[in-house]
Amino acid sequence: MYGTYVALDLETTGTDPQKDKIIEVGMVKLVDGVETASYHSLVNPGMRLPVKVKRLTGITDEMLLEAPGIEEILPEVIEFIGDNPLLGHNVQFDRNFISAAMGRSLANPINNVIYDTVELARIVLPNAANHRLETLCKLCAVDLPVKHRALEDARGAAFLAVELVHRLSMFEIPLLLDLITLLEKSHSPWFTVIQQVGQRKAKEFSNRRIATITGLRPPKEELVFQYRNRQGEDGFQPVDENEVSSYLGQDGLLSKVIKNYEYRPQQLAMARAVTRSLNNGHYLLSEAGTGTGKSMAYLLPSVLWAKKNRQKVVLSTHTINLQEQLCHKDVPLLQSLSGMNFKACLVKGRSNFLCLRRWYAALGDKNINSKEAGFYARILVWLTLTDTGDRSELNFYGDDFELWKNVCAESDGCLGKKCRYFRRMCFVNRLKRRAEQADIIIANHSLVFSDIAVESRVLPAYKVLVIDEAHHLEDAATKHLGTEVNRAGVARWLTRVSKITARLAELPAPGEQGQWLENMAGLKELQYKVREAAEIFFAGISHFLAAKKQNPEQTRCTVRLKKGTDFSSMQVEIENLVQRINSLSEHLQKTAAEIEGQMIDGESEVAREAALVAEAGLVLAADISFTCDCNSDITVHWIEGEVNEEGAGHISIHAVPVKVGELLHSTLYSEKNCVIFTSATLTVDGSFDHFIERSGLNLLKPDKLKTLRVDSPFAYDRQSLLYVLNDLPAPGTVPEEEYLQSLAEVIGEIAAVSGGRTLVLFTAHKVLKKVYYCLKPQLEEQDILLLGHDIDGGRTRLVEEFKESERAVLFGAASFWEGLDIPGRALSCVVLVKLPFWPPNVPVVEARLEALAKENKDGFRHFSLPEAVIKFKQGFGRLIRTGYDRGAVIILDKRIVNKRYGQKFLNSLPVSSHMRGNKIKMLNNIKNWLYKVE
Hints:
Elements: E1 4-12, E2 22-31, E3 34-42, H1 51-57, H2 61-64, H3 70-81, E4 86-88, H4 91-101, E5 114-116, H5 117-124, H6 133-139, H7 150-168, H8 173-185, H9 190-204, H10 241-248, H11 253-257, H12 265-280, E6 283-288, H13 294-309, E7 313-317, H14 320-335, E8 344-346, H15 356-363, H16 370-382, H17 400-404, H18 427-436, E9 440-444, H19 445-453, E10 464-467, H20 473-480, E11 483-486, H21 487-505, H22 513-548, E12 556-561, H23 571-596, H24 601-628, E13 635-644, E14 647-657, H25 661-667, E15 674-679, H26 689-694, E16 705-710, H27 716-719, E17 720-725, H28 736-754, E18 758-762, H29 765-781, E19 785-788, H30 795-804, E20 808-813, E21 829-832, H31 843-854, H32 859-876, E22 887-891, H33 895-898, H34 902-907, E23 915-917, H35 919-931
Parallel strand pairs: 1-4, 4-5, 6-15, 6-16, 7-9, 7-10, 8-9, 10-15, 17-22, 17-23, 18-20, 18-21, 19-20, 21-22
Antiparallel strand pairs: 1-2, 2-3, 11-14, 12-13, 13-14
Helix pairs in contact: 5-7, 6-7, 8-9, 8-16, 10-12, 12-13, 13-14, 19-20, 21-22, 21-24, 22-23, 23-24, 28-29, 28-35, 31-32
């Protein structure tokens, strides 16, 4: 790495250069890859440090008392940097703080060229687990003795850059040449560095012929369709229940390979029930409490049955965490046993995979923009490393998700057997071949339902389905059997049209030249008209949403579309957009057909892609018509979007079925021999009736459906305390500010008593946010770290930080009610702020309550209450994750003891009793419970 660079890293009190302060400066000067000088200083910010910063850096207020202020050392810092390029990990952040310290605005920062090692690492190491500095330094064997200290991080970034450039020099010349082209188009500062590397390497191999296209990593093995389902007249062969017991029993085979194996009779009981259902072709509802080991209870019988019958079994989950547990823990464990020779395959939807045809078309596009070029540079390197083409190997952020749609293998862009990559190289077909040879296929609810909607495009034929996390079944089916149109989707289709039109214009005229030019001009004119109609359409929706806002502070708005609503005023805009999209699509179809007739390979492929884009346009137009037509009784329609002073942001229009039970019965159940439904939360007050009714299982013959409940092996009465606070004012009975203040006070006191280690679950992010800012200063004074969902970061990062912190409180809403696994002392208290009822004005909920009313059913009793109980059970389940956990669950909603329906919530929990009282009594009981010696 030739030249002079200054590696810069700062530690600060926060992330806003205009408000937050620098507390440490570290710099290293690199000359031709060698450190020649360094600079370090602590900085007194003139304020107390936030708890998060002290935990992260190890810097204390005492350490900064005698440190100079930033104005004292700024001349030294500026002199050290000079005119040299700045180098660092997310170095824009550090550059902005230095600029602010100099009194310069972010619009006019210091003008030194910046080289971000994050950008370079994403190119050179695209499939790293993550691109944090400590991860990359470990991966590249760069010494980083202390994390989150300025000088060490600056030095780490400096030598990480040296190592990354060295790795670049080992790339093949074609890859380097393609990278240089893309980085020049992306306006990346790293372009000049990589260009130097490429020039030096080209001199070394000046006599070698250089290819013009970067090579792909070939498949590891050629997979062929060898697996065949058994279709005998004798029917399916049963699995002996005793064989299942020989694995899961007290002295079973699993006890020989699992250290400290715990025999769980509940697990064996469930496994036997699953086996009987597989053998007899029954449907099984199995609620298995936390700690049962339900994944092994269905996986083992499924493997034995699949092998014996040469049939596939599909296991479907809702969360990625459970998929990873199955793929990386449970399946390998079974495969390690003698005689357990089976194949398992994780299957994902097509859009998760790269389409090689679309990729090379994008790479050859002369009009790609800088964002696309930077993204494609990462893809370029990754393609030489990947065996799967699965985007999960990449670390997406920001616009990456949208850019990926340009090159992914979504079904409306697939040429099928006409594609040159179809047989051997296509990543989707590689997956299909692995799935065809597998006994066990692991998927998710999204793919199962999407596969139904597009008539089995990815999953092979199967007769047995296991649905884990089945309490999400209705919502998953609703979402994926519905239709959505959004502003980004229309813009993306128009971009595809623009790109394919540019490629068509480069082809020889299929007929008379003048007519062809007129045809191309017509396509461009129609594109302009569609774009104009789309702008008018979404502007109209923006005004429609803005008129429905409840208060000026509201930035996100959701409006249900009903018969006779004032949305009918949009009819002209709807029809105009649909008509223009159809016209453009039909014109594109006609153009494609004219070229297709020439039957010239390269030109024919362009024509086929144009036909696909046109077909996608016809589907888009139909979807717009369908979602905007709110005259149906069987579907519910709504619009949601961001409306602010700058105008409308993301806007989407939805149409989903009000009831999915009949759809599930006709499209899924009727096609399967056996379906297993399992979850820790399927019953309400001991009954499966709600799940059976909502999922359409009531349409089965009575003798076809079996049920089983197995309790958790955990001793909840010994391990957990359930306490109901009865003196907190209820929302609506006092002014909002008074309620929020009372809520913040009690949560703060619970956090103090428990020493942090508390998860607080909210039902509304608005309330979460207000309590967060009210409580944060108080907890800071007590050295307790407060982490707020979508305030301090996303779910995954916050949970990691919470686990690693000794004294922390985590505020979560929505998704935090389930799926969190925080065992041990990190979590001692779970606070449930309110009973988790759905807001009645959510469009789907409102429509379902109306449908029940038409059937003369009480919507609260048949829908709202059981849905809330199931989510409540999930929230309670966050506390005890192992047999060694201990803690308290505190409910701050006294409706659970004041309302008759509250008993339904209490009866559904795995504890036999609870305590209730005022705040003082509650705090004393929690303290005694948490710190008593057993």
